[in-house]
Amino acid sequence: MITSDSRMALNSLSVRLGAVGRREEGLVAVQEAAGHYRVLAKLSRAMARSGKEASGLAFARTR
Predict the structure, then answer these.
(1) pTM, full prediction
(2) Gap between the Cα atoms of 24 and 18, Å rounded
(3) How far apart are CA 18 and CA 45, in angstroms?
(4) CA 55, CA 63: separation in Å to the nearest integer?
(5) Which residues fall within 8 angstroms of residue 4, CB to CB, at 6 or more apart?
(6) Per-domain residue ranges for the chain?
(7) Which end of the chain has fewer CB within 10 Å, C or N?
(8) 7: number of CA atoms within 13 Å, CB side?
(9) Which residue, 31, 25, 35, is CA-closest to 2?
(10) Which H or E element spans position 39?
């Protein structure tokens, strides 16, 4: 499951890999984190359009 926590963990991993010179691996991690964010944002918009409660996804994005 894609969560805000997994997105933040991948971003953190990217920063740490870059700090030790493993920039290519860091780039892959941050690209995956960005992909997770896009999915969460898309789901949130879809739920808002459908009139369903999206507060759980909105909360997940802010964590």
Answers:
(1) 0.60
(2) 8
(3) 33
(4) 12
(5) 40, 60, 61, 62, 63
(6) 4-62
(7) N
(8) 17
(9) 35
(10) helix 23-50
